[in-house]
Amino acid sequence: MKKISPYACYEVMLNYTCNARCMFCSQGNFDKARLASFEQTAKSIYIAWQEGYRRIGFTGGDPLVSPDIIKAISLAKKIGFPFIRVQTNGIRLGDRDFCKRLAAAGLTLCKLSFASDMPEEHDRLMGHAGAFEQSVAGLKTLRALKVRISVNILITKYTYHRLADIIRSFLAMGVRNFIIVYPLYVGAMFRNSSELGIPLEDCTGPFAEASRLMEEIGLGNEILFLNVPACFLKGRESLSIGLNPFNTTVADPDGRHTNLDDTSAADRQKVPGCDKCRLKDKCSGLERSYIKIFGDYVPPSGLKKPFSALNEESKSLSSNKKPVFFTENEECLFEILKDGKEKSTAEVLEAARHIALCKDCTDGNSVMNTGSRLEGLGYIKRRFSGGKYYWSINPCYKAKKNVI
C-alpha cells in the first residue's frame, strides 16, 4: 500500500448543489441537482481511512446544503479522523443551532469563502442577498464553539487593490489563517472575466502588501496563495500553494477518485521564460484559460536563491517578532492552560483532542515548538522534571496578551 503523507487530505464531494449563484463560480456545467447518496459518501469515507488518510474534507457545490452533512461528519469522527474540514460559502451558518450540530458532530475546521468584506459587494458577487451577514454570524459562532476557522479571499477587480484592508477586517473578527485565491477562469468566472478579471501582474503589489501585514503582526506563515505561480510572489515564493504536492484525492458524487496533482498540472502550461526559473521543476506554470484571456506572461529571470533558502527565510520572518496576534496553535495552548494548572506535554495533547482550535496537535513536536516560541516571548513557562516537560502560563501573561 502506498504510504500516505500525514498532511494528505481526502476530499469527498457531497454534491454539486449550491445555495448561491456566484459570478465567479468555476465549477462549469456540472449537474447542480446532483447529490451523492449517503451510501456512496460512507464508502468514500471508509476508503479514505483504509488507504491511510487521516485528514478528510467535505466539499461541493456547497456541502452544507447536503442533507447528509451531519451524518458524514459524525461517521468520519466515529471512524477516527482527527481532522475534519468543510469548505463552504457560509450561508447556512447563519443558523446558530446548525453550527452547534456541526461542532458536536466533530467538525474541526471550517474554511469560509468571501468575495469581499463589504456586505453589499459580497452578496452581489455571491448572488445571494444576506450571504455576508449569515457567513459572518457563522464564523463568530463557530469560533465561540472552538472550531478552527480559515478564510478564502477571492481576488477580483473589486478586491485585489484592497487585499490588506480586507485581511484587517477579518483579523478583527478573530480569523488568523488566510488563503488568497486567484480564480480559475472557467465556468461563470470565464463568462464574467471582463467585469471581474484582473491580470496577475497587477496583483503583485497587493500580494506583497498583504504578506508584509501578516509578517508584521506575527502571522507571516498564516497566509498562502492559491493558483498564483511563484514568480508573482517575489521574495515570498514559498507561499505559493502548488510548489509542493497537493497530496489530495477527490471523490466526486459518483464515486470517481481523482488525484488533484494530476488534474491541476493538466490544466496548466509553461510560458516563455519559465525554463530560466529555479522553480521550473516545481511550478506547473499558468492556467491555460488565463492565457486565453490575458496572454502569456514573461516571468523575470531565474530566482537568485534556491527554493529551500527562500522557504526557510519565509518561515523565519516572524519567528522572533513580538506578536500582535497569535497563531491558531498558540491560541489553542493558551486555551488549554487558561485554568492556571501546569500540564505535561501529554496532558496538553489530550486536552487538545477536545478542541479544534489548533492546526496540528498530533504529536509533542507541535507542543514543543509552540510552547518554546511563547516561552521565548515571555508568555509561557516551561519546566523539565522526570523526563517530561510541563507547561504553564506566565503570571504576567494577562497583561501582555492583546488578541481579540
**N-C termini distance:** 46 Å
> Strand order of the main beta sheet, please?
7-6-5-4-3-2-1-8-9
Structural class: alpha/beta
Q: Give the strand content.
A: 15-25%
Helix and strand succession? EHEHEHEHHEHEHHHEEEHEEHHHEHHEEH
> Residue-averaged pLDDT, rounded?
86
In percent, how helical is the residue content? Answer: 25-40%
CATH architecture of the largest domain: Alpha-Beta Barrel
Query: Largest sheet at a glance?
Result: 9 strands, mixed
If helices are DSSP runs of H or I spanning 4 or more residues, what is the number of helices?
16
Whole-number tally of structural domains: 2
The tally of beta strands, per DSSP, is 14
C-alpha geometry? globular
The CATH topology of the largest domain is given as TIM Barrel
CATH class of the largest domain, named Alpha Beta
Extract low-pLDDT stretches. Answer: 301-320, 399-404
Query: From the alpha-carbon coordinates, what is the Rg to the nearest angstrom?
Result: 21 Å
Q: What is the name of the CATH superfamily of the largest domain?
A: Aldolase class I
